DNA sequence: GTAGGTTACTGATGCGCTTAAGTAACGAGC
DNA sequence: GCTCGTTACTTAAGCGCATCAGTAACCTAC
């Protein structure tokens, strides 16, 4: 592997601007306590633009002892397309603070998070849900701060979503609930959390625990599941997510069952398609943009030594009531 | 911002193993031309494990002049959940070659790709579709190799997808096609490409160009669009993607139109839900795992100085024929 | 008029690693 | 018995930047 061609360095900029490399660094970083006259600043910035100079992150990180890179670990499988809006807002908010976001698909067999973190020398690792202890410790040893959307004390987000689904159905008068589990083994952990939330709500309302059925994205199988729930006098189903819920709706049509009269269905995530199903799907939505913004604040806080203080209900999930319930 | 606590360095490992830092580096990198007896190697690796040492990417990159980080730029909005499978496979294949993958959501107002690239000092930037010239040049100046899924000469993937959709419908005997455009302005460019592909196929078959209609994810609006196509004697519609197609199916049901008899519908992306619509949706699928693997190969090739040689039809889109056409 | 402060810089150092160059110890070959 | 080659290392340089410790020039105050 050849060494890449010579790149523009701060020394080049310094030469072009007729100053020292230190001055270039001061100008570019607005280093507090340094007084740079307007004229010099202009010359330096001019040279930067002329040469299309971009400081190398690795050199900066090495010299400064910390980088401006934030690593976001996102769950193995998408939490729906909304994740994009979240990431975008997060990246934008971080950029305002001079930080750079890159993301890593967690759980993949590719490479453990601490390795990735060390490789890019991230100074903060953010995640939507808490990481396991070993990983967290390894990351901290690798020099990264950790930031999550959920406070440790609060109910984990996933569990809360399940609770909201169930509470909605119970409020509508349903007394026996079903739960539609996803088939993908990697979704199992999240699904179990959400199911626990449903069980919480049932227990709290003093009704039977939910009847959970494994499902797959297959119309016939879901038609069967729907009939099974009916037989067991289930009147409403919480689906793991909108995808499962939509598939269930199709399965029900095949079984000649209609939502919400024969079986009420609520999804989770509020994917765009949830508005255009037949009937439109009730679901749980997050304000992901807000989450992105507040997570960015937490990162900045953590970086300046303050305890990241998150809003109580960071993900703020809420019920979207449409025609399927 | 306090300097983070002292982290484990290669000097610490060297001390623990009773060797010099150079030896540690030789062991960890399997540096060719260095003979390390088994016993020494064992001692070093032992110390590494004991201390949970992870080399800092920034220091490595700085010293070696190149990092082992690959940056994947993914389009602004998800190309469906399949993107996950692709990223995963890509990351795994890269990991086998000792490379680390991180991704960046392109197009977001956050921070331009070259800045991100410089910040993490990526040595390769991969992208699903070609980047504009300015960006490409800036990246190259930032010292990154560029790798794409599409060869420059080949038809851009997006255009090809549109062509496949149309060819499928034409082969089924349709003589007047519609095209359902997405409403999101950021999708416009991709949509235009796909539409061009449809137009190509129509021209090639000697039939009228497609009647493109703007749509949004709204059942009523789509019912109206469906009726409009019918009035204009369109018998089959290519949808921008499966999402639009599924919404159209719902709109058609509201307009008392059935697929494929009243209007055939084909989507694109083969999202999981496409199997469970009513009727199941014909669509265009990619072999994303294969793409991930071959893109990783291209990256490795590019890094070892060879020209990245991609398989002719890297994304290899193909028609999935279900009941909606 | 000069001590003391401020402004506007520069020089030197070191971050943690890779790598070229060096070296001590040992065995083989003559 | 001495050289040469090999093995198994070590030493030192330097990657590109941030940052600390200067310092020269100029200004102010008394």
UniProtKB/TrEMBL annotation, chains A, B:
One of the Pfam families matching this protein, by short name: Peripla_BP_3
Keyword Transcription: yes
Domain HTH lacI-type: 8-64
Keywords: DNA-binding, Transcription, Transcription regulation
InterPro entries linked to this entry: HTH_LacI, LacI/GalR-like_sensor, Lambda_DNA-bd_dom_sf, Peripla_BP_I
Top-level taxon of the source organism: Bacteria
A GO molecular function held by the record: transcription cis-regulatory region binding
CDD domains cross-referenced by the UniProt entry: HTH_LacI
Transcription regulation keyword on record: yes
Protein name: LacI family transcriptional regulator
Organism: Nonomuraea turkmeniaca
